[in-house]
Design goal:
alpha+beta; Jelly Rolls; 3 helices
């Protein structure tokens, strides 16, 4: 089934693909509830102040969220049919970051390295725009308008940022696909 048959909108953008209406409202609420219950920290976080100030919750492919990983892999496969990403992904990265930005929180310009592991970034907007002010997602010279459920897909080595939150709370989920094949454990 193609995106247009499912009513999903693809917005052409330089160096990125924007996908709207991919998740249902109930799926977005399920992701938020799971993310809010995770402890802060975990995983490999390469950034610290002044590069970022926000709460990062690490999600390591929990069985109860396998549906999310499968759905995102399906999104990659569908996008790869019509976009030249210049590599072929072999897996979705096992880790994901659930970001919570509160008043005064931000994430300065950065990329999602290491490039050998992360090839494409999938940033999912989990908050409705009326839940916060500030906090615009941006590339070097372009902003992405906030929309509940919007997914921004871009090469992981692309510089991007989240402006300072001036009020409210902004939540997002970040996942990656990779062309690395993980070594199989010895039997």
């Amino acid at each position: 089934m193609t995106f247009t048959q499912r009513g999903i909108w693809l917005v052409p953008w330089p160096n990125a693909v924007i996908v709207d209406d991919f998740f249902t409202v109930d799926e977005l609420a399920q992701i938020r509830a799971f993310g809010d219950a995770l402890p802060i920290g975990g995983g490999r976080i390469f950034y610290k102040p002044p590069e970022l100030v926000n709460e990062i919750h690490y999600m390591r492919r929990p069985p109860e969220m396998e549906w999310l990983y499968q759905k995102m892999w399906g999104l990659y496969e569908e996008l790869a049919k019509t976009n030249d990403f210049r590599f072929t992904a072999k897996r979705i990265h096992t880790g994901a970051y659930y970001h919570v930005f509160r008043e005064g929180h931000y994430f300065n310009f950065h990329d999602d390295g290491p490039w050998e592991e992360n090839r494409l970034t999938f940033a999912v907007q989990l908050s409705a725009p009326e839940e916060y002010t500030g906090g615009r997602f941006q590339f070097t010279r372009r902003y992405v308008a906030p929309k509940h459920g919007r997914i921004v897909v871009f090469h992981a080595n692309t510089k991007h940022a989240v402006e300072k939150i001036t009020s409210g709370v902004r939540r997002s989920l970040v996942m990656w696909v990779s062309d690395m094949v993980l070594p199989q454990p010895a039997s």
